């Protein structure tokens, strides 16, 4: 029997296992509102090939592929349990069982899912309004629509914009449907002209045309106790954002930019515990702050950071000029598609708002480059202790596999990755292990981040948190400090 024949047989065997998993995954979601994943890669709307790829993903981090023979039995046990709404990691459960002394899989699974057995199957949805519908607004819409279908906890009810012509709603729908960077919308979109609504995958999104955030009566559209996500960047202080709270039907406002004054800047996974029930205005900080803070936090906790410099190589944004022209900001008036543009970033200082122990330890600058999406942060750090390259990489690899920051920090160890490979990443930042430099107390880390989509996912995590609809994740993820 030839090697080629063996390879083909192995592939066919894995396909058969994946195809056996498909109806079980669907049944768990449909009947119990349980979403499954493989080391954080969601198995929602997947094909048999997607399932195989998710198992191969483990090799990228854990250095070996996860066999489907390990996860299929776990999946079969889950289907038989009376589970409530949850996100369950088949990969983590399967690996933990293989390393445990437990012989009975059913007992092992039940022991790890005690809190979710016999609980509610559905979440009470919370109304969400997007104020603004630009780059971030449209990605938030895509994610909210998908999350509603997945968990049912958040419900996009309306988008508020300034009307820019008779065909405004058609153009808005078209921009939601097609995206030059992130590709086409996954589903169907229709326009209800008579009622000013965009219907996306069965979600009716009311288009509200207004110039004044304080004068909108959301209750007239059946919207109540809503979370307004302001992605215009027009107001960044409490006085400006408080206008949203004057509208009927609004409970809270979340800014997708760094907040000024006493507004809490939240980096999900790091400091969401500081959110109080009484906080009615919050900030999701910036994309760069989200990209670097989780990595800096775990490095500081483990090794101690004496001081450091953060240099961000950032894709151009819509506030830059396409051709040389006047701009109120320094250098940003030069053509974005032709130049590297040196500018400043407040992200290094903003890290201290989420991680107070980093106060005064970081400096930062930014270089805007001629790419439309995906940026990189170079973390040039002096540590309190000496480190070795493989030791740091191994630790960061474990953070991405086993810790509570798994959704925030990813790790890659591939010789040919470039920026476009990270378009669509849902993580706040991805550590490039091959680029890590360690020399005594000197450590340099390279962190990729999709400054549009990765950041938007962080925003949605905050929305779900303040709405009280974040799904419980099992098995329990470790605090990074618990990692060996």
Automatic annotation (TrEMBL):
Keywords: Oxidoreductase. It comes from the Bacteria. Belongs to the glyceraldehyde-3-phosphate dehydrogenase family. Gene3D superfamilies: Dihydrodipicolinate Reductase, domain 2 (3.30.360.10), NAD(P)-binding Rossmann-like Domain (3.40.50.720). PROSITE patterns: GAPDH. It comes from Corynebacterium yudongzhengii. Residues 126-287 form the Glyceraldehyde 3-phosphate dehydrogenase NAD(P) binding domain. The keyword Lipoprotein does not apply. NCBIfam families: PRK08289.1 (NF006139). GO terms for molecular function: NAD binding; oxidoreductase activity, acting on the aldehyde or oxo group of donors, NAD or NADP as acceptor. This is Glyceraldehyde-3-phosphate dehydrogenase. CDD domains: GAPDH_I_N (cd05214). Pfam families: Gp_dh_C, Gp_dh_N.
């Amino acid at each position: 029997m030839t090697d080629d024949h063996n390879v083909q047989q192995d592939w066919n065997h894995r396909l058969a296992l994946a195809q056996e998993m498909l109806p079980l995954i669907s049944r768990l979601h449909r009947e119990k509102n349980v979403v499954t994943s493989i080391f954080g890669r969601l198995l929602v709307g997947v094909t048999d090939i997607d399932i195989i790829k998710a198992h191969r993903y483990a090799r990228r981090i854990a250095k070996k592929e996860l066999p489907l023979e390990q996860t299929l039995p776990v999946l079969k046990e889950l289907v038989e349990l009376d589970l409530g709404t949850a996100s369950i990691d088949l990969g983590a459960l399967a690996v933990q069982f293989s390393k445990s002394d437990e012989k009975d899989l059913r007992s092992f699974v039940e022991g790890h899912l005690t809190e979710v057995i016999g609980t509610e199957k559905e979440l009470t949805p919370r109304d969400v309004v997007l104020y603004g519908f630009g780059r971030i607004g449209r990605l938030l819409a895509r994610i909210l629509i998908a999350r509603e279908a997945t968990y049912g906890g958040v419900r996009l009810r309306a988008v508020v914009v300034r009307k820019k012509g008779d065909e405004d709603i058609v153009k808005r729908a078209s921009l939601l449907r097609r995206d030059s960077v992130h590709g086409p919308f996954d589903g169907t979109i229709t326009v209800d002209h008579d009622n000013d609504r965009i219907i996306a995958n069965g979600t009716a999104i009311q288009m509200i045309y207004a110039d004044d955030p304080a004068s909108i009566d959301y209750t007239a559209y059946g919207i109540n106790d809503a979370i307004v996500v302001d992605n215009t960047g027009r107001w960044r202080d409490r006085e400006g954002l408080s206008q949203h709270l004057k509208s009927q039907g609004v409970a809270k406002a979340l800014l997708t930019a760094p907040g000024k004054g006493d507004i809490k800047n939240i980096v999900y996974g790091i400091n969401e515990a500081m959110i109080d029930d009484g906080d009615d205005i919050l900030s999701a900080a910036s994309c760069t702050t989200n990209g670097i803070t989780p990595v800096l936090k775990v490095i500081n906790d483990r090794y101690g950071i004496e001081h450091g410099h953060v240099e961000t190589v950032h894709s151009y944004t819509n506030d830059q000029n396409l051709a040389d022209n006047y701009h109120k900001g320094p250098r940003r008036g030069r053509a974005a598609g032709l130049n590297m543009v040196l500018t400043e970033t407040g992200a290094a200082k903003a890290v201290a708002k989420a991680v107070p122990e980093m106060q005064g330890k970081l400096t930062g600058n930014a270089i805007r480059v001629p790419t439309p999406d995906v940026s990189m942060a170079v973390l040039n750090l002096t540590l309190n202790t000496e480190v070795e390259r493989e030791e740091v990489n191994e630790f960061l690899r474990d953070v991405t596999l086993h810790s509570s920051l798994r959704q925030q920090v990813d790790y890659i160890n591939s010789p040919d990755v470039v920026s476009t490979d990270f378009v669509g990443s849902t993580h706040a930042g991805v550590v490039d292990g091959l680029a890590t430099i360690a020399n005594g107390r000197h450590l340099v880390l390279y962190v990729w981040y999709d400054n549009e989509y990765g950041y938007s996912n962080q925003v949605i995590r905050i929305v779900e948190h303040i709405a009280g609809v974040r799904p419980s994740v099992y098995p329990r993820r470790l605090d990074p400090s618990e990692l060996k």
